[in-house]
Design goal:
Blueprint (H helix, E strand, L loop, with lengths): L5 E7 L6 H9 L6 E7 L6 H11 L3 E5 L6 H11 L4 E4 L5 E2 L3 H11 L5 E9 L5 E2 L5 H8 L11 E3 L14 H9 L5 E12 L5 H4 L1 H18 L6 H11 L8 H20 L4 H20 L5 H11 L5 H16 L1
Parallel strand pairs: 1-2, 1-4, 2-3, 6-9
Antiparallel strand pairs: 4-8, 5-9, 6-7, 6-8
């Protein structure tokens, strides 16, 4: 087999229930010039037997078995190091790639030589069926990555330059860490359309290891702050991390104001490091959300409204201003 245009890399651990469907979704792609590297990470169910069965039928499959269990991201790195393709496409062993996925992404990468990493939208299925929509342009993606992962990992394809390797120190969200590590070196894009069906179930990292995922994501966000020269106090770190893990519950006005001021510092520092309009829009939205959290917890103050919130200007609609003032007055009348 000559060197393929795309190497699809898929780690597997105990996915006998979904594995056949995932493998077949790649084998039935409209784009045919690929190798399919499947790395079994010492499965204890019939996953390895299923992989071998398909490998005997299709020569494009490269079946690899780890000598001992190493984890998802080390298994991905193993596959990435073996990849011979011009591009490497990520695949998960419980998801389904739509038939045109590889062709669509190959065409996009061939037509956009400045893009190094490309994702797409994806559609949940299993627990729910909503569509995960991600920003499209590099500027939007880079701004969003500072705060949250906005490259759907199961949809990613990237140029095979031997530098796309995941941190093996984290058991969760190493993809987010990798994108943040690379965001000042490469250009990103997301194709505005669903190319992958993302299966929701209780055994995946995002549901089974939520606490670890939140912890690792918080570490990455704090590192992003350090990269633009911001160091937070212990209390500021706590509030900042809890805000993004949806655990921030302000108990008083000071907590609201202090957390909003964190984003003021990020706004100013971001400008100095070249973050543009989209970055500022995101910060404004976060500040508004913090204010709304205060409203929901009946933590409001007319004094703070007139001395701080109006000056900062993130309550930028008459409705938002009236809503805040209404809740201030309601608290006074109680």
């Amino acid at each position: 087999m000559s060197e393929p245009m795309i190497s699809v890399v898929m780690p597997v651990y105990n996915q006998e229930k979904y594995l056949k469907e995932s493998i077949e979704s790649i084998l039935h792609q409209t784009f045919k010039d690929f190798e399919f590297i499947i790395v079994d990470d010492q499965s204890t169910d019939s996953s390895w037997q299923i992989i071998q069965e398909y490998a005997r039928k299709d020569s494009r499959i490269v079946a690899v078995k780890n000598t001992n269990k190493k984890g998802c991201y080390p298994a991905r790195n193993c596959g990435n190091r073996l990849a011979k393709g011009k591009y490497i496409a990520v695949m998960d062993s419980d998801d389904i790639a739509l038939p045109e996925r590889l062709q669509t992404q190959f065409d996009f990468m061939e037509q956009n030589h400045d893009i190094d990493i490309c994702g797409s939208w994806m559609k949940n299925f299993g627990a729910n069926d909503d569509i995960l929509i991600f920003p499209q342009s590099h500027e939007e993606i880079k701004s969003s990555l500072f705060f949250n992962c906005c490259i759907g990992h199961p949809t990613a394809i990237f140029r095979n330059n031997r530098e796309i390797l995941y941190s093996e120190e984290r058991s969760c969200v190493s993809d987010y860490g990798l994108w943040c590590q690379k965001m000042n070196e490469v250009k990103f894009a997301n194709i505005p359309g669903v190319l992958v069906l993302y299966r929701r179930h209780g055994n995946q990292i995002s549901t089974g290891k939520k606490a670890d995922q939140d912890k690792n994501a918080s570490e990455i966000r704090l590192q992003n702050l350090c990269n633009i020269g911001i160091k937070l106090s212990e209390e500021e770190r706590k509030n900042y991390c809890e805000f993004f893990s949806d655990q921030f519950c302000p108990k008083n006005i000071d907590e609201i104001v202090d957390t909003i001021k964190i984003f003021e510092k990020i706004s100013a520092a971001g400008k100095n490091f070249g973050y543009g309009e989209k970055f500022q829009e995101l910060i404004k939205g976060f500040q508004t959300k913090i204010t709304n959290l205060g409203i929901n917890n009946n933590v409001t103050s007319l004094k703070i409204y007139f001395t701080t919130f109006r000056r900062m200007g993130f309550l930028d609609t008459p409705r938002a201003n009236l809503r805040y003032v209404f809740h201030c007055l309601r608290n006074i009348w109680r």
